Amino acid sequence: MKLPKHPEYRENLWLALEIGNSRLHWALFIGEALECVWDTDHLPKFVIQQMAQCRTLDDLPTEIFPFSKLSGKQREIIAETSSYLPIFVASVVPKQTALWQNYPHIRVITLDQVPLKGMYPTLGIDRALALWGAGKTWGFPMLVIDAGTALTFTGADANQCLVGGAIMPGIGLQFATLGQKTGQLPLVETNNFTLPPRFALNTQEAIQSGVIYTLLAGIKDFIEAWWSLFPKGKIAIKGGDRTLLINYLQALYPEIAECLIIEPNLIFWGMQKIVTENGE
């Protein structure tokens, strides 16, 4: 299904917005080129209403759009654009999506607009777009690992048909759950790229060992299962914990780590493919 034609869309300039559970993730495209990405907090309704009056990026407050990210050439292109800003949205938070419904220059990308075959109705739009962006950029078969709040695996075969996937708690969520749902275990966080001892002699390292080694073993198992189905299948990884997990994989399973395509902006690439291929 094609996206509705946007009356104010210009080939030169458009915004992509991914509405996540805790943050808004933005991207600026000029033509088909991804120029810059940034994050903001969820915006209150009155700010969205103010944005509806903005005709260019120059009209946006700096807390919404960080002009410091732009090069001189990018600023020149933006200065020449006088139409209202079209925003293409992918959201996993219905309440947040509803706040944007009255923004006059918005198009929400829904699951039926992603050309993957064999999708089920409750597949997350974020997973579908990331898989589509990865597959269209590097080729199918493609498995996408999203190392975010949840750790997800989503794959499609050479015919661009959904094979399926899996969802489990991400590394931070596992640490938080043990700390919040038990009476004696501490809340543990890890920003350390060094693997903990596997057989620990204190509680904090024991938690780190249990979570990290089990998580890495699970990732390895899913990747090996993927390669057993598709020996030449590609694997891309995204998400906020990607660097942490890649460092762990490099230490434990270097032959797997070196095969991963690292690209944090897969969802935006999926949106770009849909917007541009539908002649928006």
TrEMBL record:
A monovalent cation. Ammonium or potassium. CDD domains: ASKHA_NBD_PanK-III. Its cofactor is K(+); NH4(+). One of its GO terms (cellular component) is cytoplasm. Its main location: cytoplasm. Signal peptide: none annotated. It comes from the Bacteria. GO terms for biological process: coenzyme A biosynthetic process. It is found in: Cytoplasm. It is an enzyme of class 2 (transferase). The active site is at residue 126. Substrate binds at residues 120, 124-127, 203. Homodimer. NCBIfam families: baf, PRK13331.1. Belongs to the type III pantothenate kinase family. Catalyzes the phosphorylation of pantothenate (Pan), the first step in CoA biosynthesis. This is Type III pantothenate kinase. It comes from Komarekiella delphini-convector SJRDD-AB1. The lineage of its organism: Bacteria, Bacillati, Cyanobacteriota, Cyanophyceae, Nostocales.
